Amino acid sequence: MTAARGLLRHGLTVYAVCYLSFLYVPLFLLPLFSFNDSIFIAFPLSGFTTKWYVQMFQDDAMHRALWNTVKVGVMASLVSTILGLFAARALTRYAMPGRSVVLGFATLPLFIPDIVLGISLLILMTSVGIPLSLVSVALGHVMLCLPFAIAVLLSRFEGFDRSYEEASLDLGENGWMTFWRVTFPLVLPGIVSSLLLTFIVSFDDFLIAFFLSGTEPTLPVYIWAQLRFPFQLPGVLALGAAILLGSCTVVVIAEWIRSWGVKGETHSHIAGI
Amino acid sequence: MSDTFIHIENVIKRFGARAAVNNVTLDIGRGEFFSLLGPSGCGKTTLLRMLGGFAQPDSGRILIDAEDVTTLPPNRRPTNMVFQSYAIFPHLTVGENIGYGLRRQKLETSERDRRVDDALALIRLDGFGARRATELSGGERQRVALARALVMRPKVLLLDEPLGALDKRLREAMQVELRQIQRRLGITFVFVTHDQEEALSMSDRIGVMSGGRILQIAGPKMLYDAPNCREVAEFVGTMNLLPALVTGVSGGNVKVQSPVFGAFETVTAEPERYNAGQKILIALRPEKFEVVRAASSPHAIRGTLTAVSYLGDRHQFQITVENAEKPLLAGTHFDRSMDGAPFRSGEEIYVQWNPNEVVLLPKT
Question: With CB atoms 3.0 to 4.6 Å apart as the test, which of A208, A223, A257, B223 could cross-link to A140 if both were Cys?
Fold first, then answer.
């Protein structure tokens, strides 16, 4: 029995290692070659250098693209989080018919290929007459981000005890002040988490930005354009490595904030029983 | 009951086709400790929530201290609620929780602090003001919820099964404490519970609810000794229920024929409810039976002891008697007869009873 079980456990460990390697080893190539002293992306490595990073930081076009991406990301994350807040509150508070259908449609954009979404939005924008700009990109990104915002905020609202709001009303507060004194602070971790997550979704998007940006590229679009020039490639690698690090950090923080809030809640709930 | 303080008149509340509260009329006195008792789903919590303003009646009206509050929202009622989940705000400290409602009233900071400190003293949690709400134990949270409501100086305090989540010892201690606080402050308490012992031990009066209706309103002793229907008799305490036939009514006396107890005559407060030839139920509490080896009363039934269970403070006997569908239950403090020999399972014994302790219930 123990032999069979030991074999199974070893097999599973090997499987898990292979699985994680498959997911993450390609990602490590990016930072690895970004420190390689050669414009050719190939083994063997020829030496350590930070000149690609220096080159990256001196590139004005890159700075502009970065700033564009941040502007789009802030707009998209704010709008999608506010809309997500309304949706999550309505979905959890009111017992409405067709709740699951509404929820399904709200999260459907997750499964629509970005290229389809991008082309559709491009057709829509041009036919309605919205000029292609950072605003059109942000509008597209709201569509992309909304399912993430709803998912994060929904999990927050679902663990929310209705009697907190009732207690506030009972103690003499009106509906508006109850929202600010009770509901908002309790869902705040969810809001912060949603803002960070949607910002990253917007920041990392290439396809929709590619279709909807006019003359002002976002960072991923800019990177793609640079790939045409071989001598720019190491700089792009450095930039990619920096984005990877930044994205991971933000996602980890977002997840930490979300779970931190939930833990506090669960703890108090258990203490109540 | 002293003067009417809460007046509930023909209140109906429907959820879909089901009437959760079905035409309830009820008066509660000033300073009274009133309990709504019933199984889950009987409508007691819905009635309480309508008193607090969290639900609106479909018809009927509610007056508190002669003011019609039927359609007032919770923040404009002279009531405060202790929620079943306590609803202690997890993002605030204990002091901020208790002072939550005082922020709205334009009080001096010093006055507010003083009232929070007084409330903490009342629930014997002095010095807990700066603690985080999430650090409290279940019993402490219950007391903070109580203080948070009482600090508002409500005319009526509503309590929704506030002791249900506590363990037995803590619950019993809190029953005494709640009762003392209520006496000291003189506030009207409306207390919802499904625990009949809790209701009996704390309340001035109890309203027993079932299926959205109030079955009986009475003091604890009256409710226990003279339930007015089968449901109340079965819900409050343990009861032996047996079918019987009314053979005659004269004045306050009713003649009854029972397959188990034979023919006997008993007194009733409501002789007008009974007619000769009517099928009724007779009810007798287990502790009203006396178990003996030799019968010394004309009202004794022969039976076989089929089970003896030890309940700590008393013993419960199951006794099989002729013509009864179920064995009779008899409770005694002693497991032995006057002669000193313990009763044994399988033994032939007599149960003696007093006709005037028999409760008559109309068959429904």
Answer: A208
